[in-house]
Amino acid sequence: MDERGADVSQSWKITVMVAAVAGIVSTPLLWLLDSPDTGQLVGASVQAATGIAALAWALLQRPPVPAPPPGPSDVAVDTGNAEGTGGGTAHTGVRRPGAAGTGTAKAERTGNATADGPGSSAGTGVDYT
User: Fold this and answer.
1) Residue 67, Cβ neighbours under 10 Å: how many?
2) pTM above 0.70, yes or no
3) Span 36-46, mean pLDDT?
4) Phi and psi dihedrals of 86, rounded to 5?
5) For residue 16, is pLDDT > 60?
6) Of 67, 75, 88, 129, whose Cβ has the fewest other Cβ atoms within 10 Å?
7) CA 120 from centre of chain
8) How many CB atoms lie within 10 A of CB 48?
9) pLDDT higher than 60, residue 65
């Protein structure tokens, strides 16, 4: 969230608080100063309770938690050949074991991959294994 979004949230909180205080004080105060009947007393109580609830709600609001910053961007371009022989492993491009990281991964024109022999492996591009 940008700074402006945080300001909007704060301005709404302040607006609700001001309206709540105005609701708590305004009409019930006028009704109670003018020898209220039962209906006016009940109305003043309901309006004051509603204003207090709105004020409590505004005071208890927490700002939203900002999103974590994006991770790094990994890019591999024109990396050449990968050759795995005799049980070896070779890779051109980007490797993220277990899909680790939060950023983007991109591989372009990485070249050939050759695996020769039992247990050997070779790859190009993005590897999440």
Assistant:
1) 7
2) no
3) 81
4) 55, 45
5) yes
6) 67
7) 42
8) 18
9) yes
What is the C-alpha separation between 123 and 59, in angstroms, rounded? 56
SS (H, E, C) 106-124: EEECCCCEEEECCCCEEEE
| Averaged pLDDT, 99-117 | 77
Closest by Cα among 87, 90, 97, 85 to 128:
97
pLDDT surpasses 60 at 73: yes
Residue 1's pLDDT is what? 44
Count the helix, strand and coil residues of the chain and give each as a percent rounded to the nearest 5.
45, 25, 35
How large is the average pLDDT for residues 46-62? 82
Is 50 exceeded by the pLDDT of residue 104?
yes
Q: How far apart are CA 129 and CA 76, in angstroms?
A: 17
- Helix 3-33 / helix 38-60 crossing angle, nearest 10 deg: 160
Whole-number Å distance between alpha carbons of 14 and 56? 12
- Selection from 23, 17, 21 nearest residue 60 by Cα: 17
Q: What secondary structure letter does DSSP report for 76?
A: E
